[in-house]
């Protein structure tokens, strides 16, 4: 695990309920995928697998083969090979029969050890023994914080996980004894001196303790309260004790629900003389009668005898009393009993579940007839019965409630507590929830904030009614006016284009005019997107690459000036890039035009939303043509689109003509041109984006500042010029020692739910097609930054918790590689 603190799944409790989803994953071939995302298993004890089952002296309520099933049908050879082990053979010899829980527990421990060994062998997973989960906290809608204590040292740790699975056991609550009416009143305090809970009897030597309490009672009377399988197990265990000389009716079973019998089929039930069932009591999946509530094995035989099926003789020592029937007899049984054993069920022992501020989240409080703590996907429910996404639970008394999909009898109102279901249907549901949540909660590098046209049907209908879909129509014209007013304070002019690459080609072509063949170079940075170089090539020019500044990552002034000295007479146009929305010094480039006569076109693809030192829109009032992108990856996202802006109206009108085939007159080409017109639908999207853009940029700027705080003094970020940089993602530089491991860093980050990128790497001079068609001087800074750059998610909707998680995952990854 190394220093890993982030996981796809944390399992709290390595007992049957905790490991059941992992066994289900192994059965259905999903374990490798689960482990690849990182699984942390946390267990209080030094041993794992069986929970408290080995402490019980009673037999199982399931046939022996139910414990073997997940191994026999596993897709993992390492698990299947356990079938030759003595513990597996001991269970196999009991097929069709009940199994002592100590035998079942020994096999579960064996299987769990092997499974956890597989977890530990996974590079991204771990098992912590002798640790306890203190709390789970929902730190965001995609992450949980799991607070864990090392029971040996007392040290505490916090792990992050997309999903948490709770299996922290169950208990028999004392409050039910004080609040739930049995007979004339609750059992406590009136019978406290002669009352125990069933769990005290089931443990080893529990029967001895009972007999010790009754040593002065030659003919003891015991009343068992409950009609569950636990109550049946108590009756069987007590009646087997020859030292307990029960009189007739000395062992009374008080039950609320009718006592049911399990049968493999309706035919089997009828053959046994049992007709007390309806068609709704037959499981539609298995055909079994009373699959969930019916007594099985020895308890079933006891009730069969009591019912006199097939001429069976009831045991005279056992008396059955329905609590909703003869209330006087029930009260008498309680009053006359020397010992009362409450078998009134269990409740889950849940660890604290907290919200982001550390306050307890009220969970569903089980009540009679609605006992389940989880929903049908095993998701823990709030008090309002809303599922907590990413938090599942399983185990004794957890649930879920019975359902048609799970099978069983229609009217069953209890919980589904079945190891077989845990390791199959229910366990698979948990695995599916975990994997789906991992996909749903993985932070993308980019998430477009494009206006939803579906919410503006009337505007779309207006376009249809106008019958104008392109050719700088009314919607486009309105947008051009509004964007200048809104972003550039009404100063300057603009024309749209269907995409920024074509806009860049138009601006370059217009800038070079009828230049001589000797002027064939475009001076531009190599550290930029390929569209710039491709636009130059389409204009018949050759890229000449300059280096970049090591701090701002903008074109290096020294590099540009050196190349101007070396190639001054051959440079047709200069195309500096406003890297990642950073603010270029436009005044310097205007002076460069005046001093050299070489035109300048500004590649400002990512800069809509940037603010200069005067807190004005980048480019406002500039005489240089600026090309902005409205691609889905940009801050001003429309899907696809470009915007050419300039303070010179004649230049903008000339570019508009060039964007429409160069038609200076009606359908007569008077200058170079192509079709770069924006559609009316795209212009509508841009108009809608304009309305929400200030709020979007404010939010994105806030997220960027969160990153700045989290990364301060730890890793190098791009130095921002101006008041605001319209970042499309957060970029930083890896330490040089870790740069060779960038792909591995990105892979590990993705496993932790964070998508990263490496813009711009390789830079243009290192891309073969472009390199072979360009002039490439030494570019040491571009090479260094391109080799080290890492792009982190930055998009609307991210929270402080998301940023903290991204940075935490990054440094966890870096530290693991450094160690």
Automatic annotation (TrEMBL):
<keyword id="KW-0663">Pyridoxal phosphate</keyword>
<dbReference type="GO" id="GO:0000271">
    <property type="term" value="P:polysaccharide biosynthetic process"/>
</dbReference>
<dbReference type="Pfam" id="PF01041">
    <property type="entry name" value="DegT_DnrJ_EryC1"/>
</dbReference>
<dbReference type="InterPro" id="IPR036188">
    <property type="entry name" value="FAD/NAD-bd_sf"/>
</dbReference>
<comment type="similarity">
    <text>Belongs to the DegT/DnrJ/EryC1 family.</text>
</comment>
<dbReference type="InterPro" id="IPR000653">
    <property type="entry name" value="DegT/StrS_aminotransferase"/>
</dbReference>
<dbReference type="GO" id="GO:0008483">
    <property type="term" value="F:transaminase activity"/>
</dbReference>
<dbReference type="GO" id="GO:0030170">
    <property type="term" value="F:pyridoxal phosphate binding"/>
</dbReference>
<protein>
    <submittedName>
        <fullName>dTDP-4-amino-4,6-dideoxygalactose transaminase</fullName>
    </submittedName>
</protein>
<dbReference type="InterPro" id="IPR015421">
    <property type="entry name" value="PyrdxlP-dep_Trfase_major"/>
</dbReference>
<dbReference type="InterPro" id="IPR015424">
    <property type="entry name" value="PyrdxlP-dep_Trfase"/>
</dbReference>
């Amino acid at each position: 695990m190394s220093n890993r603190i982030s996981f796809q799944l944390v399992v709290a409790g390595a007992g049957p309920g905790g490991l059941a989803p992992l066994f289900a994953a192994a059965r259905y071939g999903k374990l490798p995928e689960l482990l690849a995302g990182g699984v942390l298993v946390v267990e209080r004890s030094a041993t794992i697998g069986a929970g408290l089952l080995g402490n019980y002296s009673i037999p199982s309520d399931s046939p022996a083969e139910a414990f073997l099933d997940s191994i026999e049908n596993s897709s993992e050879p390492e698990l299947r090979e356990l079938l030759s082990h003595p513990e597996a053979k001991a269970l196999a010899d009991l097929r069709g029969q009940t199994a002592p829980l100590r035998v079942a527990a020994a096999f579960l421990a064996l299987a769990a050890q092997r499974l956890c060994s597989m977890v530990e062998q996974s590079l991204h997973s771990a098992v912590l023994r002798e640790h306890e989960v203190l709390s789970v906290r929902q730190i965001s809608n995609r992450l949980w914080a799991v607070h864990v204590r090392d029971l040996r040292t007392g040290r505490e740790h916090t792990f992050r996980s997309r999903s948490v699975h709770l299996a922290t056991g169950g208990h028999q609550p004392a409050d039910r004894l004080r609040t739930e009416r049995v007979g004339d009143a609750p059992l406590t305090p009136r019978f406290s001196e002669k009352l125990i809970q069933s769990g005290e009897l089931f443990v080893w030597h529990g029967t001895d303790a009972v007999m010790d309490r009754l040593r002065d009672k030659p003919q003891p009377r015991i009343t068992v309260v409950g009609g569950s399988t636990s109550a049946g197990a108590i009756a069987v265990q007590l009646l087997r004790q020859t030292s307990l000389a029960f009189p007739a009716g000395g062992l009374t079973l008080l039950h609320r629900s009718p006592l049911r019998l399990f049968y493999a089929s309706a035919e089997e039930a009828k053959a046994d003389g049992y007709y007390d069932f309806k068609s709704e009591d037959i499981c539609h999946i298995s055909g079994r009668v009373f699959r969930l509530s019916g007594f099985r094995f020895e308890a079933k035989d006891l009730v069969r005898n009591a019912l006199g099926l097939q001429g069976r003789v009831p045991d005279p020592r056992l008396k059955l009393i329905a609590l909703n029937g003869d209330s006087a007899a029930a009260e008498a049984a309680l009053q006359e009993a020397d010992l009362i054993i409450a078998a009134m069920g269990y409740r889950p022992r849940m660890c604290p579940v907290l919200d982001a501020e550390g306050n307890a989240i009220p969970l569903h409080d089980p009540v009679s007839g609605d006992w389940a703590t989880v929903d049908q996907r095993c998701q823990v429910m709030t008090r309002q019965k809303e599922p907590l996404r990413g938090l599942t639970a399983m185990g004794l008394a957890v649930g879920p409630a019975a359902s048609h999909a799970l099978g069983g009898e229609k009217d069953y109102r209890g919980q589904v507590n079945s190891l077989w279901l845990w390791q199959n249907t229910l366990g698979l549901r948990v695995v599916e929830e975990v994997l789906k949540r991992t996909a749903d909660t993985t932070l993308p590098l980019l998430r477009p904030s494009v206006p939803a046209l579906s919410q503006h049907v009337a505007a779309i209908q207006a376009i249809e009614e106008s019958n104008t879909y392109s050719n700088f129509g009314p919607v486009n014209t309105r947008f051009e006016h509004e964007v200048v007013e809104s972003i550039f304070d009404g100063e300057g002019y603009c024309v749209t284009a269907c995409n920024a690459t074509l806009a860049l080609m138009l601006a370059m072509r217009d800038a070079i005019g009828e230049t001589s063949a000797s002027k064939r170079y475009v001076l531009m940075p190599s550290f930029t997107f390929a569209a710039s170089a491709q636009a130059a090539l389409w204009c018949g020019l050759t890229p000449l690459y300059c280096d970049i500044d090591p701090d701002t990552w903008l074109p290096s002034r020294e590099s540009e000036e050196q190349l101007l000295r070396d190639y001054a007479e051959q440079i047709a146009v200069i195309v500096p890039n406003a890297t990642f929305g950073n603010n270029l010094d436009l005044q310097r480039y205007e002076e460069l035009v005046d001093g050299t006569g070489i035109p300048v076109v500004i590649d400002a693809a990512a800069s809509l939303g940037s603010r200069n030192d005067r807190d004005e829109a980048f480019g406002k009032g500039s005489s240089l043509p600026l090309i902005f992108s409205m691609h889905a990856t940009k801050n001003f996202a429309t899907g696809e689109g470009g915007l050419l802006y300039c303070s010179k109206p004649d230049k903008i009108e000339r570019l508009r003509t060039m964007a429409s085939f160069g038609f200076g007159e009606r359908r007569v080409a008077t200058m170079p041109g192509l079709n770069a017109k924006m559609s009316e639908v795209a212009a509508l999207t841009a108009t809608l984006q304009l309305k929400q853009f200030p709020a979007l940029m404010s939010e994105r700027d806030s997220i960027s500042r969160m990153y700045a705080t989290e990364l301060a003094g730890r890793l190098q970020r791009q130095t921002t010029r101006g008041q605001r940089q319209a970042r499309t993602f957060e970029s930083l530089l890896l330490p040089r020692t870790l740069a060779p491991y960038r792909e591995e860093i990105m892979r590990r980050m993705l496993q932790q739910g964070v998508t990263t990128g490496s813009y711009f790497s390789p830079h243009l001079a290192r891309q073969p097609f472009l390199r072979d068609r360009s002039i490439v001087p030494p570019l040491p800074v571009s090479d260094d930054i391109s080799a080290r750059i890492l792009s982190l998610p930055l998009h609307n909707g991210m929270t402080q918790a998301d940023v903290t998680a991204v940075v935490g995952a990054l440094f966890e990854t870096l530290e693991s590689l450094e160690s």
